[in-house]
Design brief:
This protein has helices spanning 89-94, 128-132, 136-147; strands at residues 3-13, 23-36, 39-53, 63-78, 97-114, 166-178. With 179 residues, it is mainly beta. The two termini are 23 Å apart. 4% of the residues are buried.
Length: 179
C-alpha cells in the first residue's frame, strides 16, 4: 500500500498585542495515503503552546499561555496527475505545482491570561450603582473607573456560556505550493 508516516518539530510564535512573544516548540505527526504519486491525502496531528507577555514587564500585566491540539485532513493535487509532462519543458516544471484543500479542528486551551479588566454582569449598566453598594459616592467612583474608557457590549437573549475554558474551532484550508 502506498502510505507514509512522518513527523516534525518546529519553532512557533504567537502574534498578539503583547510586547513579548515566546518562541516555543510545536510537534506534529502525519499519516499520508497516496492515491497516486501525485495525489496524497494526509491526516496531521499538531500539538504546541503559544505564549507571551509578562506580569512583570508588560505595561498592563498581560500574560498568556495557549496550549493547542490540531487535527487536519488535507489533500493535494499535483498537476503531474492531470497534465502530460513528457516532451514539454514548461509542463515538466508545471508538473510539480500542487493545489490543495483541507479541513481541520483546533482545540485551544488558554491556561493563563491576564488582560485588562473585563467586567461582565447580568445587570444592565444603568443598575450597577444599586448593585455596587450603599454609598452612592463610592458607587459613582467605581462606575467612573469602569466605564470611562470601556467598550460596552450589551447582549440580549439566553446565555450561551458553557462550563470549562476550552475553545474549539473548525476551518477550511486552501493553498498552493511548488515542490
Amino acid at each position: 500500500m502506498p502510505m507514509g508516516i512522518g513527523g516534525g518539530a518546529g519553532i512557533i510564535r504567537g502574534y498578539t498585542n503583547v510586547a513579548k512573544q515566546n518562541n516555543t516548540i510545536a510537534a506534529n505527526i502525519n499519516f499520508t495515503y497516496y492515491v497516486s504519486p501525485y495525489l496524497p491525502i494526509t491526516l496531521e496531528v499538531q500539538k504546541g503552546t503559544l505564549s507571551g507577555g509578562s506580569t512583570e514587564t508588560d505595561q498592563y500585566k498581560r500574560q498568556y499561555s495557549n496550549s493547542y491540539l490540531g487535527l487536519y485532513l488535507h489533500g493535494d493535487l499535483q498537476l503531474g496527475q492531470v497534465i502530460d509532462y513528457y516532451y514539454s519543458g514548461i509542463n515538466e516544471i508545471l508538473k510539480n505545482v500542487y493545489f490543495g484543500s483541507g479541513v481541520g479542528f483546533v482545540n485551544d486551551n488558554v491556561n493563563n491570561q491576564r488582560t485588562n479588566l473585563v467586567a461582565t454582569s447580568q445587570y444592565p449598566v444603568g443598575k450597577w450603582n444599586e448593585a455596587i453598594g450603599e454609598n452612592p459616592m463610592a458607587a459613582d467612583g467605581i462606575m467612573d473607573r469602569l466605564t470611562a474608557v470601556a467598550h460596552r457590549i450589551e447582549l440580549k437573549g439566553e446565555s450561551l456560556r458553557k462550563k470549562g475554558d476550552t475553545v474549539s474551532a473548525c476551518f477550511l484550508l486552501l493553498y498552493t505550493k511548488y515542490h
